[in-house]
Specification:
The complex is a heterodimer. By secondary structure, chain A is mostly beta strands. Chain A contains no helices and eleven strands. The chains are: A mainly beta, B mainly beta.
């Protein structure tokens, strides 16, 4: 069965420190993977997707098919990065977005 | 207009009531979704409409009845709900973009409380 695992419920880092939010997936085909973010009192929104290979707000994520991972990274955390982050997988040819349990990132001053 | 709009923002209903949640988007998206989110949990897919036809029903109880009157509107009709149905109900939309799934655009949600 398809599954997305985010092992950390809460990740606290100091401002300026590197950040890595882990995401592992279970899917036998070629997945489409996304990171979504929810800032306080805002709607859930797309942060980035693996096919774009772009950097958004300093965040990047690389799909590692060998390790079935799609970890989110940022070299220098900012306080405004504090939010809830969800990794999501979509099996090919479906609309079934499957969300991980989420990681709350707290960036401390 | 690049937003998904949901009404009402809050809804309190008794177990014998009938109510409806509404969702609207004017981005030309042809896929629309209902998700349920309990506190501190990820969104759980309930229904997907593609080109105004029900594409996915994730074995949702019949007390939840979706409707897609046209490409911009999505409703969720509620009847005889249980207290455990209290949750944040999220609507989302996405383009139908061929081989790759386009990202979801979420509304702010309706906070439902069943008493």
């Amino acid at each position: 069965a398809q599954r997305v695992t985010q092992p950390e419920k809460l990740l606290s880092v100091f401002k300026g420190a590197p950040v890595e939010l882990k995401c592992n997936y279970s899917y036998s085909g070629s997945p489409e993977l996304f990171w979504y973010v929810q800032y306080s009192r805002q709607r859930l929104q797309l942060l980035l997707r693996h096919i774009s290979r772009e950097s958004i707000k300093g965040f990047t994520a690389d799909l590692n098919k060998g390790e079935t991972s799609f970890h989110l990274k940022k070299p220098f955390a900012q306080e405004e990065d504090s939010a809830m982050y969800y990794c999501a997988l979509v099996p090919s040819g479906t609309y079934k977005y499957i969300f991980g349990t989420g990681t709350r990132l707290k960036v401390l001053a | 207009d690049t937003e998904v709009t949901q009404t009402p923002k809050h809804l309190v209903m008794g177990m014998t009531n009938k109510k409806s949640l509404k969702c609207e988007q004017h981005m030309g998206h042809r896929a629309m979704y209902w998700y349920k989110q309990k506190a501190k949990k990820p969104p759980e897919l309930m229904f997907v409409y593609s080109y105004e036809k029900l594409s996915i029903n994730e074995s949702v109880p019949s007390r939840f009845s979706p409707e897609c009157p046209n490409s911009s509107l999505l409703n969720l009709h509620l009847h005889a709900l249980q207290p455990e149905d209290s949750a944040l109900y999220l609507c989302a939309s996405s383009q139908n973009s061929g081989s790759y799934n386009s990202p979801l655009h979420f509304g702010n949600g309706t906070r439902l409380t069943v008493t």
